[in-house]
Amino acid sequence: MSDRVQLTIDNGVATVRLSRPDKLNGLDPEMFDALIDTGKRLAADNTIRAVVLHGEGKGFCAGLDFQAFMASAEVGQKLFDRGSESPANVAQRAAWVWQEVPAPVIAAVHGVAFGGGLQIALGADLRYVRPDAKLSVMEIKWGLMPDMSITQTLLRLVPIDIAKELTFTGRILSGTEAVELGVATKVCEDPLEEALSMAKVIATKSPHAIRAAKKLLNEAPGLSRADALKLETELQIPLLGSPNQMEAVQANAMKRDPSFADPE
């Protein structure tokens, strides 16, 4: 990948590292492009069973690097460009692409996750955070509002009044409070180690069932009750009697580790 994002893959677990530590992994045009390209690559790779997303250096991501966009209005305007392959524009997709990856994505957050950095973490399925991490919907500090898919992420995690308070004030949450509010999933002293450990566990499960479960849980909240129940059935039927489902049954019966095939 580019020097902004480093990607390693080991036994179906992809580790994505934001790699601009001198700028606290601040988001410049190259970082936006690298995040999207990495997410698209992982979405197209059927051997990927789990993804861990983290930041190099002292923090996860400090948000938008304003200096990188001040040289030219055209550079900033490109963030609002929208292609045909995703409903998200460039700025949104750097965060939303992690929901487009069929495999589960875990963000490991230490140090700061401010503004766009927090929204990237919110795009993951799970967020493991250090207790002393600092998280903020910080756009209001700069006279802006959050616009990197927060309507599709934060609003699924917390009540609307909590989302409004965090957005209107831009106040900084500790990792501990973030978990208490539902913004993050789990507090841990070493989020990266625990995220990798969880990713390895997920990678041992049937990838067909895991991908179907992520699709179900992502799409059901936006559906009517009837359509959500219908989706459960539509996703379950192909799993029943499939090779990986039979392998799960046989492995449990024989008390051995299963060996699952990747999706074609």
Radius of gyration: 19 Å
In the sheet with the most strands, the strands line up as 1-2-3-4-6-9
Query: Structural class per helix/strand content?
Result: alpha/beta
Estimate percent helicity. 40-55%
Number of domains: 2
Q: What is the CATH-assigned architecture of the largest domain?
A: Alpha-Beta Complex
Number of helices: 12
Which residues sit in consecutive blocks of at least 5 with pLDDT less than 50?
none
CATH topology of the largest domain: 2-enoyl-CoA Hydratase, Chain A, domain 1
Beta-strand residue percentage: 5-15%
Separation of termini? 24 Å
The shape, in one word, is globular
Q: How is the secondary structure organized here?
A:
Blueprint: E1 5-10, E2 13-18, H1 29-43, E3 50-55, H2 66-70, H3 73-77, H4 90-100, E4 105-109, E5 112-114, H5 116-122, E6 126-129, E7 134-136, H6 150-157, H7 160-169, E8 173-174, H8 175-181, E9 186-187, H9 191-202, H10 207-219, H11 225-236, H12 243-254
Helix pairs in contact: 1-4, 4-5, 10-11
